[in-house]
Protein 1
Amino acid sequence: MVSTVIPVDPFDLVIFGATGDLSRRKILPSLFRRMAVHQTPSGSRIIGAARSKMNRAEFRKLAREPLAEFVEAKLLKPELVEEFLNAVDYVAVDAAGDGGWAALARKLDEKPGNVRAFYLSVAPELFGPIAGRLSSAGIATPASRIVVEKPLGHDLASARALNAELRKHFGEAQIYRIDHYLGKETVQNLMAIRFANALFEPLWNSHYVEHVQITVAESIGVAGRGAYYDKSGAMRDMVQNHLMQLLCLTAMEPPSKFDPDAVRDEKVKVIRALDPLKLSDTVRGQYRANGKDGSYLEHVGDPASRTESFVAIRAHIANWRWSGTPFYLRTGKKLSARLSEICVVFKHPPHTIFPQVDALRGNALIIRLQPNEGITLRVAIKDPGPGGMRLVEVPLDMTFASTLGPDGEMPEAYERLIMDVIRGNQTLFMRGDEVEAAWEWTDPIIRAWTEAGSRPLPYDAGSAGPIDSYKLTGSDGHLWREIAA
Ligand code: BG6
């Protein structure tokens, strides 16, 4: 199945921090892929902006390098690479000083009809100063868009300050806060499954759902990013944003329309309905060495660090739909596999006519984000053969790659999100109040951990995390799914 590509309007995308890691790994390769399928019209420009003094040819050379590394070889046809590089330009801009802003203004004025978007791929301390310059130098028009990405604050107070700073210069409808999980195909599919099928909605509540598990497990550690990660930890790095988004999309009420604010209103309501977390609803872990790969403490270079590289949570949503259904969240580094999934576990049938039903795990809908994006419905059937009425559980499996065919490849999250910025569609971006509400929920528990002064529980690198995370679900009679790719 080949997906339909609808071209966006011609645009100028200015990337601040264009020589940085995110630009190299994600932004430039994603723009290339969209250009390769003719979604970006000619006349569009990708304008790098950074402090380094460089000319256009030098930046083009830099922009070419990540393509070989991060774009599939079959797409790298020489004429496409040339076309892409022809659209690339550069202006040296001093984000915190005066240099380069007039030159950037002149460059953008060459194409006044292009959609203008500014991607701030820089440290959050620079969001305010850059937004201020864009507005005072008259570079940002009322139709321009500004794109920012986590960390969006370190806690509620800093997130509020950041939002206030951005809103001094840009309206909320111009601010695109990226959570790249929302750009993942299967995350969007969660909405499609829930709101485009009549099948699930009647069962999507605490009468029928026993519990929900959301797992985002990573096999990589923090080596290389230790300095950032150690100030953050799994709660700030993953739960406050990515897992919270998955929780919201799973639990939200159907919006009245598929419109950015209608969707985001419903998500905010979920966050606000979350019961405050108790310490006993959380398990923190930190990986220790297992084999030659080193421990968390070695990776961050601080033998006394109490930052968690794993967290498991039991959350309760206090509303009519979900009262009584626990939502378990867990995420961690150096776990046994890279696996992200949402598993909705249904209750057992109310009356048992087959003796083994109680021994089965029950129906479950598993939405796999990565790897092998797809959906599986676990159902009980009769074990084939003449040996009587024995039951087995089998997966009704829909792996998107095999169902949609080889051309149904999943685009990178950033491809979708950057095109949405140009289209002016904020549905898959976080609104300011949503980010603040998420901090409001996570802040007290982070504070409580610090006050308790306890160390995170050690777990072996390559395992499923601390054994206590199993006690968390086990005390409710539930069992985490295995972390296996
Ligand atoms: C980032 C976190 O936001 O998400 C990283 O800062 C994490 O620590 C990454 O590794 C995970 O993203 P993905 O898309 O690889 O699941």
Note: The longest strand covers residues 209-217.
Protein 2
Amino acid sequence: MTQAQNLTDRFGRHIRYLRISVTDRCDLRCEYCLPKGFTDFSEPACWLRSAEIERVVASFAQMGVSHLRLTGGEPLVRRNIVELAQRLAAIPGIDDLSISTNAIRLARLAEPLYRAGVRRINVSLDSLNPSTYKAITGGGKLEKVLEGLEAAKIAGFSPIKLNTVVMRGVNDGEIEEIFEFAVEKGYALRLIETMPVGATGQDVLDRFIDLETVRQRLASRYELIPDILPGAGPARYYRVAGSHAHIGFITPMSQHFCQTCNRVRLSVEGDLFTCLGDEHRYPLRSLLRAGCSDEVLSHHLSQAIALKPERHEFNERPARVVRFMSMTGG
Ligand code: SAM
């Protein structure tokens, strides 16, 4: 058996992708993610230290994981994020290091992160209207995000993807405008359906929109040709005929993609989650702090992967996931 086969689950899915929530803290309070005024964050003593994260990643990498994404919370609020990125990028077997950010702090950090080895970046941007952006994010300043995006381009990130959670009556009327902005700047746009993760995610389900209706609306205006993009993950991409512009649709609710899920998530506290839609977790921090051997660690990782659920049940059991997205990242 090759090492990569060690990380194959019961449904034949090879796990290649680890998402790491490097902090559950965030400088925004997006309405679908964290409650306004929320401060009940994990305590620093419970956070995985950089060396512990490195150890988990090295073990995963030996077993075939090659893609890493740093997420959160907001990964740029972790104080040593650049140094951590550099250490993770240097781990043998890791050939793709990306980051998801709200870009509020990106203007200053884009260049150091690129130098550290991060190559792909996803930026959350739900509106181009400063007051709508502020309302959705609980006080965020749109101009900071736009500055961060410019800095990412200058630093050399490619591709740069915008993540837009589409909500009825909030930003669904703006999609064409956001798409044209993305096209003009050379970014790919990914539209995301709201998911019932945590009470906040459950509260916005009444604003859920099946993205197929949005795709049809866009298709009446642009000629959309199915295409693929590097690091495509769960998005179904289309290219606009006659251009390099891409738009992706992430449809966990209306058309789930669990059969191709190749990812697992490490929380800020060192719990491994094998499914975004499942509360089951495999605590690794206590193992690491008890000085477990490399063999014991990789045995636990394989055991966790073997039990990855077949699919989420967001539609059948929308109240199931009580943790906020910030613990495990999007
Ligand atoms: N702070 C970073 C950011 O803004 O990208 C990384 C963490 S954020 C939790 C990652 C992604 O999860 C974002 O694109 C966000 O829009 C998405 N997200 C959070 N809660 C969601 C929900 N309930 N439904 C759909 N997407 C959600």
Note: Residues 1-5 have pLDDT under 50 and may be disordered.
